[in-house]
Structure formats: C-alpha cells, structure tokens
Amino acid sequence: MCGIVGVVGNENATDILIQGLEKLEYRGYDSAGIFVAGKGAGSLVKSVGRIADLSAKVGDKLEGTAGIGHTRWATHGKPSEVNAHPHQSQTERLTLVHNGVIENYLEIKEKYLADHELKGQTDTEIAVHLMGRFVQEGLSTLEAFKKALHLIQGSYAFALMDAEDADTIYVAKNKSPLLIGLGDGYNMVCSDAMAMIRETSEYMEIHDKELVIVKKDSVQVMDYEGNAIERGSYIAELDLSDIGKGTYPYYMLKEIDEQPTVMRKLIQAYTDENGAVAVDSAIISAVKECDRIYIIAAGTSYHAGFASKMMLEELTGKPVELGIASEWGYGMPLLSQKPLFIFISQSGETADSRQVLVKVNELGFPSLTVTNVPGSTLSREASHTMILHAGPEIAVASTKAYTAQIATLAFLAKAVGEAMDNEKAKSFDLVHELSLVAQSIESTLSEKELIEGKVKELLETTRNAFYIGRGNDYYVAMEASLKLKEISYIQCEGFAAGELKHGTISLIEDGTPVLALISANPVIASHARGNVSEVVARGAQVLTIVEEGVEQEGDDIILNKVHPYLSSISMVIPTQLIAYYACLHRGLDVDKPRNLAKSVTVE
Ligand code: F6R
Known about the structure:
The protein is α/β, with parallel strands linked by helices. It folds into 3 domains: 3-241, Glutamine Phosphoribosylpyrophosphate, subunit 1, domain 1, CATH 3.60.20.10; 245-428, Rossmann fold; 446-592, Rossmann fold, CATH 3.40.50. It is built from 19 helices and 25 strands. Strand 19 (367-371), helix 12 and strand 20 form a beta-alpha-beta unit. The longest helix is centred in the C-terminal third of the chain and has 20 residues, at 400-419. The chain binds fructose -6-phosphate. Residues 283-425, 455-593 form the SIS domain. Catalyzes the first step in hexosamine metabolism, converting fructose-6P into glucosamine-6P using glutamine as a nitrogen source. It comes from Streptococcus himalayensis.
C-alpha cells in the first residue's frame, strides 16, 4: 500500500527521502510528498504521479537534516496534491504521514474537528488535525500524539514531525508495517528495510501499539501509556544488487528469469549436508498433530495454495481446505478439532490474511506463515515460519514468489510425509524433481521470442480471453488469468475446462482467445483436448501450452515433462511471459499496473 520513510540527523535528508521513496514506490504510486526540516522553516512538497515527478518538483532547493516522506495508494479521496501526504495540522506546526485506514475518522471529525477547515478527503488529515488541536490546547507534541493514538481506531503506521523540534520523529504503528533503521549519527524510519539498505543494515522492530521517539542519536520505545520498552536491534544483510533492475527493462522480467535460481536456493535452504530434506522439526510436528490444514491467502498466494493442495494431501494424509483471507475475516466456517492454519504471503503484511491470523491466535490454534520476508508481521505473529528465499520481489505482479511458495510447500509436504512413513513421500525425490523443474523453467525462458510472437498474434488488441485447464492446470489457469488481467487489463477468466460448457461457453465467439493448459496426465489431457475442440468449434482462437508426453501436432508451446506435484511451477512460466509481453505490446507499465500496490496493508 503506501510507503513511509523518515530520517533525522543527516545533512542529505532530502536525497535520502527521495531515494527511499523510489525504493518504496512499488507499495503505492499515485502521488507522493516530502516534508524537510532542520535548516530554516520546514518545507512541504507534494506531487501527483510518480516519485520522478516529485523529485523534479523538489529539484535541489530543499536543504534539511530531518524529514518524512510518503508514496500513496489512494484509499480515502482520489489521487491529488491535496490528498497526497504529508498532511499538516491547522497551524501547520505538525506534519504527518500515514499508512493504513483510520476506521473512526468520521466520528473523530464530527466530535473534535467540527470547526476545522480540511483541505482534502483523507483520514490522515483528520488525524493530524486532531493531534494539532491537542497541541493548541496546551499539550506537548508527545502527549498530543499519545492522546490521539488512544482515540484512533484502525490500522496505521504514523511518522509525525513538529516544526518547532526538527530533531525528532514520533512514530507509532498498529497493523501496518514500520521499522527503525539505525545509522551512524542519524536514524531512520521506514515501511520496508529495502528502502534503507543503502544507509544501514541495523534495524529495530516496532510492535503494534508502540510509540517510538526517534532522534539522531537515540531511539526510545514505549507503550501508549509512556512506559519504556527495551528493544534490541538486529542486523539484516540485504544485498543491494537484489533490489536493482540491472540490465533488465523491467523488474518483472528479471524476477521471471530468476526462478531457476530461486528453485536451486530452495534446495540449499531446505536440505541438510547429506542432501536430505530438512524442515524445522517443530513445523513437522505441528502438521503431524493436526487433523486438517487450512490455507489462508489472497490473490496469487491463494492460487499457490490451490496448486499445492493435492501434493500436501497426498504426502501428509491431511485434508487441505483453502480460504480467501478477506472472506474468512468475517467468520470462520465450522473448523475441525485440531486445525493447523497455513498463511501464504509473499510480503507477510497482507492485512486480509493478518485479520484471520489475529482470530486464529485468539482461538489458540497453531499457525505457519510461508513468506518471503523474515520478520514480517505474519511471520512474527504465527507460531512458525518458512521462508521463500526468492529475494525481494519488486514488480507488482508476483511471479517468483508464486513458484517459490509451491516449492516451499513441497519441502514441507515431503518432510512431513517422510516423518509419517508415507510411501509416496518416501519415493518422491524432491531435490531431483525440483532440479528438473529448474531446467524446464530455463528451457521455457529460452523461448521468449516464440512466446512474444504468439502474444502479438493473439492478445495485442483483444478485450477478453480465457485460460482453461483441468486438475492442477485449472489452478494455474486461475493464476495465469490474474497475471494477464493485472498488467495487460485484458478481461480474462481462468476456468475449469470442463465447466465451460455449463454456461460460460456462450461467451466464445469468432476470434475469442482461449489459452489451454494441458499437463501430462493422459486422462486429464484427453478430456482437456475435448474442451479445446468445443471452443474451436465456436470460433475461438486457441493457444495450447502442453507438457511433453501429451503434445500433438500444432501445439504452440511444449514444456519439459516434470513431476505432477510440481507441474504448476513449470506450467505457470509461459503464462507469466504471456502477461509480460501482452502488457508490453499494449504499451502499459509492466511493473506498476494501475490501481494496484505491491503490499496490500488495508482490509
Ligand atoms: C498478484 C499479487 C497479489 C498478491 C496478493 C497477496 O500478482 O501479487 O494477488 O498475491 O495481494 O499478497 P501477499 O502474497 O503479499 O500476501
């Protein structure tokens, strides 16, 4: 969602803020702003559009030693300069940036700010006016902040500055990510460590409902009553090259290409020195002891859950149920006696998933988070974590995280199955099979030209399309269609191939693109071929993506055959490239599709 960065005690505050915002732009990118103080009166600059627009507007005229910045993904109020953060109190003494959603903002407005003139429509402006009102009534900035935090309900990460004290940033969070970066003679605050790795590798966590006073040489953590909290720092050696595009035109293409390496990294991470699969024994016990696995996730991560369901069920013997996080937040269905919840989340910050985890913790059930981001909220709050080892994923459209999620769950399924003496698990040589998957991905990646050509023929101008498949191919079709919709804006449905004839086939007309996914299960393949014939007979223009072993003359993209548990990984690769080229040929922004944000931290 939105991204926050702040720095105090550094001569290059403006540069640090702008560079930090560039790194956070993936979290939201409809408008941005910075407030810089420390040399003369504080200055506020805001702009609609990308960070490049803000940077051009800032130029080299803003000097200061402290400041806060924000990149926005609109929730309350349309993208505009007035709605862009930072926001200021009525007297302009206080300046605030915020990530999250304040649920009771209208109530606060009515009760406390009836006589205040607000410029925009955001909940954040109401929050800073509230704090400003308390300061005008005589409270110190700290006391005013605390009092407001007691009144505000909802999710937030706040960074607040007082024009009369440019040496301090006041910070608080609840259900939205924020952490402190400890520099040499200065300190920072940021939504994501990635935006601070140029400056520091030493970080400090902030927990929900904690208030932090950040100065250039001190960081004081306290609860909302003002009681001091001891908090150590930790070192995270992130690689700067991981977050650059290198020679790639877009992050998405770089991340697609990284997938064979990610598969190999996962082999290293989840095997021991003898090459045997190695997963934390506490996690294995948690799965062994449960009577049902509930996978909770959103979007692409939800699709990865589906793609792993059959494998998990067959290797662990535990039934697996999938839940859309935003739906399960309202209420749980009837649960089994001993459930285990698995949260799949690239970012580890998705608010929809987190609200389910909060309930799961209240109910006292065990949980496992499968995430790319160690130390993320979902990781910290779950009983166990498995890391995806995919490296930072910056393009909004998730690619390498999806394949890493399936591979990570394969290690889990294999480890549990072996521990339970499951014959299928014992004979499943995961390390070997995953190496073959890495090779298969490499071979698909070498066919980019062919895939680009097919996309030009089929998807350059169409308004709609279908992906169809059966079994696991259906789950891949769901993900493939999300990817295509998300970045090319082509309306696309991922459909169970056999279900089409029960109504939706009426949408097929002359030239409708239908992309059929057919993996090497002879029964499924022959039924899927039948469904392909049905759409061809109604004028569809078909593209087939087929695994070796069931290919036929005229098929468009042939993939190496891999183990059925892992075929979703290899099958999704051409569909990622299809989405990429469709977007490119339609002249759209690959890495930053409209209306979206990478990390969805609002419910
Ligand atoms: C699509 C995409 C989203 C995310 C979803 C959940 O390409 O990335 O659908 O998968 O917003 O995010 P995480 O995995 O961070 O919980």
